[in-house]
Design goal:
The chain has 298 residues and is an alpha/beta fold. It has two domains: 226 residues, 3-Layer(aba) Sandwich (Rossmann fold); 59 residues, Orthogonal Bundle (Histone, subunit A), CATH 1.10.20. 51% of the residues lie in helices and 9% in strands. The protein contains 13 helices and six strands. Strands 3-2-4-1-5-6 form a six-stranded parallel β-sheet, sandwiched between helices. Helix 11 packs antiparallel against helix 12.
Length: 298
Amino acid sequence: MHTLIVILGPTGIGKTDLSIEIAQEFNTEIISSDSRQVYKELKIGTAVPTEDQLSKVKHHFIGNKSIYDYYNASMFELEVLDTLKELFRKNNQVVMTGGSGMYINAVCNGIDELPTIDLKLRNDLIKKYEEEGLESLRLQLKMLDPISYEKIDLKNPKRILKALEVTIQSGKPYSSFLTELKKERDFNILKIGLQREREELYERINIRVDQMVEEGLIEEAKIYYKDRQLNSLNTVGYKELFECFEGKITQEKAIELIKRNSRHYAKRQISWFSRDKEIVWFHPEKKENMIEFIKSKL
């Protein structure tokens, strides 16, 4: 039986190198389930694997989209399933790694069938967001779909825009589409979660942010400052620097906020993954234990 080996965990935990080593062990390829590494323009701030890392194992879904493209978890699900069909023709195992819980969930469990959104509706909502701000969208969602309003991350414009798009397009609340019925897959799924002590993880995150700055994160953010309204750039590491470029905060403060917001993001990731009882947890340095576990399940 074909098996998808999912290696997941919060940002900065050490997924990239470990996934490469496990893919090499099983002579297979890697699918990235990172919602930001898909964008070819964002390399430093999204911690895209280095050229050396990419040369060791073939990766999919890294740098295959543009920040100007509309992309979501539902589209990712369909594209990954098509890719897996091809990969399973030559490999019995495939590795998928990343920290984007919705993207991982889409591949493993599926997403409810949602209506196709009219481009004019999408653009109208984006324009409303740009002109009136997030609070205006929140109030509209509260009126049209109070259930989604209670459950959704009200700080995330992408989630609110999605809920409004579906609600307005279909004439039915977005919440009515979320049946949470798991779709059957024709392959096995093994989920391996990586965990470290909180202090150790936070220190790794702080160090990584400093490395990104040294590698040119500020210069990269300057290039795309003109496109800061794009949802793809509503991302930790870029939005803080955009505030700096606008003169709202100093560069030192921006870097401090990137570290803080990255730690907060990691905390939310840990909370998301902790709800999934299918995940078997390991310390990233226990590679041999992981390989032994995987082989016992194949």
